[in-house]
Write a structure and sequence with these properties.
211 residues; alpha+beta; Helix Hairpins; Ubiquitin-like (UB roll); five-stranded mixed β-sheet; two-stranded antiparallel sheet; 9 helices; 15% strand; globular; disordered C terminus; binds FE2/S2 (inorganic) cluster; 2Fe-2S
């Protein structure tokens, strides 16, 4: 895994002030509104969290096998769609998550977290410190779409995804709630060709994380 110092472009003996300055610079450079990508933006956040122990970015919460299913809790294994190209993987690969688990990916790109009963999938990701794409948060765009490869995500509102996409396992994370003990989802799939035309212009999640 790439060192958090490397991600922030710092020497290994950088002090707190240097880490802070580097983080502010890198988070702007990597911001999706300024030519960066969601993946790079999250990597910078994870690096800062690793170096400072920032409680607002809780990337470590994975939970144990025993916790999944307790009191309605679900455990979600996630993978960033942007990683697939880098590794020559395909969305339809049967062993996609096995390959991801063996690839030593950044926590922003691959990992697991628990979703509590009061959380949608998107809310759970955000509450664990991740930045997943969204726009309307109301079931009317495809910006928050995820591909569900295992488990079930129930959506109370969907006015955008046609039945053929639902049949392929595509769901909305902003209001989708896991209803199985475990799930495997590929997030950030808004750039899939068949989802492109259903997206709203970027707005978003960027603003909420642009302080
Ligand atoms: S953000 Fe628009 S449907 Fe989820």
């Amino acid at each position: 895994m790439v060192s958090p110092f490397d991600v922030l472009q710092l020497d290994a003996d950088a002090d707190d002030a240097q880490i802070e300055r580097a983080y502010r610079r890198r988070v702007k450079e990597s911001h999706p509104d300024h030519g960066g990508s969601v993946r790079e933006f999250q990597r910078v956040q994870s690096a800062y969290a690793a170096l400072t122990g920032d409680a607002g970015i809780d990337v470590q919460e994975e939970g144990t096998d025993d916790e999944a299913g307790r009191n309605g809790t679900s455990r979600v294994e996630y993978l960033n769609y942007e990683v697939l190209d880098d590794h020559g993987w395909d969305f339809d690969d049967e062993d996609l998550f096995e390959k991801a688990a063996a690839a030593d990916l950044d926590p922003a790109d691959y990992g697991r977290f628990l979703v509590h009963p009061h959380e949608s999938l998107l809310e759970a990701a955000e509450n664990r410190g991740f930045v997943w794409p969204y726009a309307c948060r109301g079931g009317a765009c495809a910006n928050c779409a995820v591909g569900v490869l295992a488990g079930e995500l129930a959506m109370p509102v969907n006015t955008i995804l046609p039945s053929e996409m639902l049949a392929c396992g595509i769901r909305l994370s902003c209001n989708g709630v896991p209803i199985t003990e475990t799930m495997k989802v590929v997030y950030n799939i808004k750039h899939l060709p068949r989802l492109d035309e259903l997206r709203l212009p970027p707005r978003p999640f960027e603003e909420a994380h642009n302080d």
